Amino acid sequence: MSLVGKSVPRKEGRKKVTGQALYVDDLTFPEMLHGVTVRSSVARGRIKNISFEGEIPWDQFITVTAKDIPGENYVALILNDQPYLAEKVVNHPEEPILLLAHRDKYLLEEARRHIRIEYEELPPIFSLEESLDQKEIVWGEDNVFKKFLVDKGNVDDVWSKADFIVEGEYHTGAQEQFYIENNGAIAVVNPHDGVTVWGSMQCPYYVHKALIKLFGLPEEKIRVIQTETGGGFGGKEEYPSMIAGHAALLAWKSGKPVKIIYDRAEDMVATTKRHPSRTRHKTAVTKDGKLLAMEIDFVIDGGAYCTLSPVVLSRGTIHAGGPYFCPNVRIHSKAVATNMPPHGAFRGFGAPQSIFALERHMDKVAKTLGLTPEEFRRRNFIHEAETTATNQVIREKVDLEGLLNRAFELSDYRAKRERFARGNYDRGSSPTVTEGFDQSASRIKKGIGFASFMHGAGFTGSGEVFLQSVVGAEATFAGRVKVLAASTEIGQGTNTIFAQIAAEALGVDYDLIEVTQPDTAQVPNSGPTVASRTAMIVGKLVESAVLGLKQTLMGSGLLKDQYTQAEFQKACGEYIAKFGPLKSFSKYEPPPGISWDDEKYQGDAYGAFAWAVYVAEVSVDTLTYEAHVDDFVAVQEVGRVINPVLAAGQIEGGVAQAIGYTLYENVVWQNGRMANGQMTNYIMPTAADIPPIRVYFQENPYAFGPAGAKGIGELPMDGPAPAILNAIENATGVSFNQIPLMPEAIMERSRISQRNAEDNSCV
Fold first, then answer.
1. Is this prediction's pTM over 0.90?
2. What are phi and psi of 659, to 5 degrees?
3. Which of 20, 56, 205, 447 is in Cβ range 3.0-4.6 Å of 730 for a Cys bridge?
């Protein structure tokens, strides 16, 4: 029986619902201490003095400063610019300065409050505009972490030939990942074994790499074990290297196990967020609606240190041109420094920012041309054999028209657009409200909008070749098969789909497959759990590794071409008895014909793209200026769907998270610090704010994915924001070009639009 395409039970589901699953805060060790971080209260300055005050028994505490670090004082990642502990200067609020440990975690908190740090404050910058203007140089020579140029065709020759040139500017804000489990780590250090860390994380080998540099130890002396992890969304990609390093430093100095668990407030104000962005578009089109040229300027705010900003910028840059064929494209992009806490990975990884700008701009261009949004897009959708902005030739069948038609059919898009237009006009033209009439209904305007987009699966360009990911498979004497990979289960279903892929490839029961908990001492480096790569890239390696077991058994003469499960299990036992361990490893090889030029930023950016059209139906209250999403249709092509329930859950969760990004989740900054770092004032959508999310898949198997699958996890983050704002403009007639779109912004822009309309009528 085929397992791929079936909604089998989750591998870890029973342990989670029965409470057997152990998260990092469930773990304890003998003589374990608790640790905390003492952080900067200013955005930028020189550290003048640190004093330990109050009636605190300071001699009972373990204290770690930058001077105690045995190796390198930086988080090893890309540019290695972020210190574990600031020594002389601080560059953002909440920057770590020193660490404390004690057996009594309540006394520890009291002690943290009695440490005073004096600063010589320096002028900070808090916006990407200030950074670009070089109001202050706060990083390097020009505040720029990274820049890219994508250049296709000849944009400069086109402007004079265009019938229309349309320009626009679009802004997106920060967003908190808001995983259900806060960051946490436990470290045990001893001279014989070195450093061992348990933690809530996405990427054990990122932490492993960082700790090697922090302690100056050989790699075999560093061990990193992922505990059960309650969500990540990118927020546990690079940041666990920081908290793991802090716990390990305290354990190193104390000689005892140390646990650090952030509370929600510390987790929100101190860890990474989604990068704020500004995108400027200049688009040349013909009068019949064909794209001639696109010039795009894309800038993201990286915060005080580089972290993953270059790769977030890279993906955002490549996706900025969208799923359209345009012969001439130029994209300039920069990641710049400010004195905000560093921004980092978040589901979508730069694409939600640049796709938001593009899809809002496409509606603006269509309006300028007098075309419907859908007709303008139809005339420019990319097709097989055409090229993207990076000159990647599309080698798969792409049916964006089919996705659009399906999404419109399911959402009743055309009929609703007409009906809403009539209803909005009738409400707007009614001079009075009769007694007994539902006044709340009279002030509601309805709208519907959509976005078409794509998302590349896997690391960008040569990234997967650089990673050289490896997956192993091992058979036991009883004929069970263990999958050995560093890819983590963080709620998205990694363990389940790996088991499905392995069982399908071997022709055995799903229950016969075990997925080993990621532990750098036990599993090879299959790369990070990011970039929509787990199913497509690592899943393919799982498939290859288990097929290697099968081939080994056949090569030994112990297994025939056609076999039963019992025969497979028997062959495993016989092989191990005769030859020893039965293992197989598979190393990443790029699909044939893939080519990428890192210098020119041209070529095959991704092995495959997922494609989608999302439709949002909204209502806008013209009294309170609140917008609400009433219905949502998500149609996508993601290759073959391995587990329909898990796949639909990924789409539903991504859309819900994106609705928050669009309408609710406003990070309030005060002097570079998150001022609303609590669950009471950082507003997330509740169940009452989320509409029915209707998810549909159109399958087009990808030849180089396991059983034909592509990546799926980040795709649903990309399209909802522009679809919702396109719908809000359809409802109100007012254009909004920033998110999160709060009621205050709707009110202000609506009143400006109304005043302009009144002024024009007077003229």
1. yes
2. -65, -40
3. 447
